[in-house]
Amino acid sequence: MVQRIKLFDYRKLSETYDEHWPQDYKTVSEHPSAMAGTRDYDHLFKLLIIGDSGVGKSSLLLRFADNTFSENYITTIGVDFKIRTMDINGQRVKLQIWDTAGQERFRTITSTYYRGTHGVVVVYDVTNGESFGNVKRWLQEIENNCDSVQKVLVGNKCEETDRRVVLESDARNYAQSMNIAFFETSAKEDKNVEPMFTCITSLVLTAKLANPSSASKDQHRSGGVSLKDTSGSNNQKKNDF
C-alpha cells in the first residue's frame, strides 16, 4: 500500500521519515549518522512524478515499487511516496519516489514538492492528446522550480493501441528537441517501467558523480509544509491507470 501523507500532517511526518530521506545529505559519508553505523546504500535520490490527472502516475509508481496494478486506485489529496533501492553501476542507490496525484488538478505543483528533487518523470497519456500538449507546461514548471535536475518524458498506456492519439514518433522527436530521454510505458502490462526508472536513476547518478559540488545546491531541508487542502475532501476515487 502506498504511504499516504495528508498535507496537514506533513510537518509531523517529515520528521518521522527523516531517517529514510535526510535531504541535507546525499551520500552515506556526508550524513553524521553514518558514524553510528553502516547504511545499506551509497546515495539517496529524490524522484518526482508529474503530469496531468489520469495519465497513470500512481500506477507507474505502484508497478515499479510493488509490481502491482489496480484500475481503481484511491488517492489521498496530498503526497504519496515509495522507497526502493537499486544497484546502478556498482552503486547502491536508494530512491524516494514522490507521486503528486491529486495536486495536478490545480494545474500546478507547489514549489515545495520540487525542493531537493534530483530527477523528474513527466508523464502523459498516449490516448489523451491534451495531456501531451501540456507536457510543455510541465517542463516549464520544472525549469521554474529546479536549478538542475534530470528529466525523462514518458508516454503511458501504450497498450491502448486502438485508442492511441499521440504518435510515438511525434513524442520521441519532441523529447529529442528538448534533449531529454523518452520512453513509452504500460503500467498495466509492465512494459518499460523498470527500464524507464533505471534510466532516470542512472542519469541522476551520472550527473552527481560528474559534478559532486552541484549537489550542494539542493541541500535545503524541506521542513514543514504549510498548505491548505482546498479540495474539500481528503480522499477521492479516480482511475489513474
Structural features, described:
It is an enzyme of class 3 (hydrolase). It is a lipid-anchor. This protein is α/β, with parallel strands linked by helices and 241 residues long. It has one domain: 3-Layer(aba) Sandwich (Rossmann fold), CATH 3.40.50. The chain has a seven-stranded mixed sheet with strand order 1-4-5-2-6-7-8, with helices on both faces. Strands 3-9 form a two-stranded antiparallel ribbon. Strand 4 and strand 5 form a beta hairpin. The N terminus and C terminus are likely disordered.
Element order: H for helix, E for strand: EHEHEEEHEHHEHEHE
Low-confidence stretches: 1-36, 218-241
**Strand segment tally:** 9
Tell me the strand percentage band.
15-25%
Whole-angstrom Rg: 17 Å
Query: Class by helix and strand content?
Result: alpha/beta
| Biggest sheet: strand arrangement | 1-4-5-2-6-7-8
Distance between the termini: 16 Å
CATH structural architecture: 3-Layer(aba) Sandwich
Overall shape: globular
Counted by DSSP, the helix tally is: 7
Major β-sheet annotation: 7 strands, mixed
Overall domain count: 1
CATH class: Alpha Beta
Mean of all residue-level pLDDT scores: 77
CATH topology: Rossmann fold
Helical fraction equals 25-40%
CATH homology superfamily: P-loop containing nucleotide triphosphate hydrolases
